[in-house]
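For reproducibility, we list the full input for the magnesium ion complex.
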Amino acid sequence: MRKIKGLLLFFTLPFFLISCRASLYKETRPSMSTLVAVLVSGVAEPDWQELYSRAEKEAALFDHRLPGSPLKELNEGRSPELPVKLIKVLRLAMEIAEKSGGAFDPTILPLISLWNFDSGGELPDKENILAARNMVDYRRVKIDAQGVVELPPGWGFDLGGIAKGAVVDQIADYLNEEGYENFLIDAGGDILVSGLKRGKEPWSIGIRHPRSKDKLIGLLHLGGAGESRAVVTSGDYERYFEYGGKRYHHILDPSSGYPADNSIAVTVIAPTCSRADGLATAAFVLGPDQGLELLEELPGVEGMIIAEGISGSREYLLRTTSAFPLTAEELKLAAEELRSLEGEEAD
Ligand code: ADP
Ligand code: MG
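The corresponding predicted structure, in tokenized form, follows.
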């Protein structure tokens, strides 16, 4: 009898082990005007259709352009019943606005609309910028304990600086609910990692060269069993137009009404992707000194800011918070990589 049991174990154990061995499943689909890639280590493939259709639904919550969306209705002066998830993101946006002294401001819509980035972008008149600037101020927003939001008439929320991160957090929640612990989600540079790759090794995340899209300046290795971290990069190379030899990009300094010019790329690591997203936009506007000061004092947050010496000079300044997870040697290599464009066309 014991022999039969032993034989049974001998034959069934390998099958059992094979079926338990996690595979790495990958999928990439367009969503939120970018490509959203998801890598999952698990014993069964996720239901991709369900995952991406949930992401679309979540993204719609934060989209002020979408007819009938709660955010659009709010911007149009109505008082729609706001979904809890939207209230949560609005509260986080307000928290980041306060912490950054308004460098990040979710009421940026009048300025963003004026620059018309949705249709490629155009340089507005100074007077119009001044007028729109007076309709941007997070301090005029009220959110009460019940989640009722008040905004001055004619003003508008634009959650573009935090929405992608918020959707990534929702995808992570969905995967957790489905029992997955080890995965990476990348929504065009808004990244969240959970656990370990194949349950074994840290996830590698490349930080791209802000002036050469095929080059990396560094590689982060993040992850740990039962942990999740988000890494978000905001750069002046994502959406911009050029006019008179100058680059005008879509991260605006609410105090001037013009594209922020203190940084060219900011990478933020934070516990959630929505927080990392909002903070990356905030630190981008603040620039190396104030931006790093902000990131340094926040728990679980690290950051790297790259600024340009003289615009277009290819002299770069690279600075990080004290515990940014790159060694001194890796940072030296990153700085060398930044300077390595000599003779090449930047893109
Ligand atoms: P990306 O979308 O390229 O990842 P960001 O996360 O920095 O970059 O978001 C840029 C978007 O954030 C803009 O398109 C606009 O919708 C919004 N935005 C621009 N400037 C600000 C600002 N100062 N505060 C809050 N949101 C902003
Ligand atoms: Mg952002």
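The first strand starts at residue 23 and ends at 31. Residues 104-106, 108, 112, 158, 160-161, 189, 234, 238, 250-252, 254, 277, 280-281, 285 surround adenosine-5'-diphosphate (ligand 1) (CB under 6 Å). Both points were considered when choosing residues for closer inspection.
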